[in-house]
UniProtKB/TrEMBL annotation:
Record's protein name: Flavin oxidoreductase
GO molecular function, one term: oxidoreductase activity, acting on the CH-NH group of donors, NAD or NADP as acceptor
Keyword Nucleus: no
Taxonomic lineage from the root: Bacteria, Pseudomonadati, Bacteroidota, Chitinophagia, Chitinophagales
Similarity comment text for this entry: Belongs to the flavoredoxin family.
Superkingdom, taxonomy of origin: Bacteria
One matching Pfam family: Flavin_Reduct
SUPFAM superfamilies, per the entry: FMN-binding split barrel
Keyword list, A-Z: Flavoprotein, FMN
Residue ranges crossing the lipid bilayer per the database entry: none
Flavin reductase like domain sequence ranges: 29-164
Cofactor(s) in the UniProt record: FMN
Amino acid sequence: MFYNTSEIQSWERFYRANLINSLTGFKSISLIGTINKNGQTNLAPFSSIVHIGSDPSLVGFINRPLKAAPHTIANIKSTGVYTINHVHPAFLEKAHQASAKYDASISEFDAVGLTTEFMENIVAPFVKESIVKYALKLEEIIPIKINNTFLVIGRIACIKLEQDILRADGFLDLDKSLSLCSNGADSYYTTKLIGRYAYAKPDTRTEKIM
């Protein structure tokens, strides 16, 4: 099967969206928690979260066009702080429901039955049910002109996680935390570690360390 640009563009909108979204493969799925200046909380799932760098500790995500997804980015611009919370099987249905287009006056936390959790010096809400979560302070919002989306980059302000998934060298065993991944807009998967390998060097056989 082979498809060129004109064929891809001829596909029905949702068919094309499903295929292209699935084509990029498995992605992490997390809930981003925000709050506005009036104390109204917001929660939305994102599968576009990406590691930007470790020094400084930067994480990015893609926000859709403002017309389609205005609340998260508006709150981040307003307060400069937001949280990213891993999704686990115990509350997957609630996390998926948070993708519904609720009115700005409605908190997705309340609508889907998840619990807000606040930590010292962090104004944005965490998801209490998540066992791997972190807060970020906004560093930069980069407009992507070709499709009116935005790359939002934040610096990690704090991290909260279960101790038994953290290894001595800093590696996180996320399969132990049952953190989920996604493919497309509506499919979710569990993960299982196949192997972990030593740092690759030229002319040196790669060694499996886990």
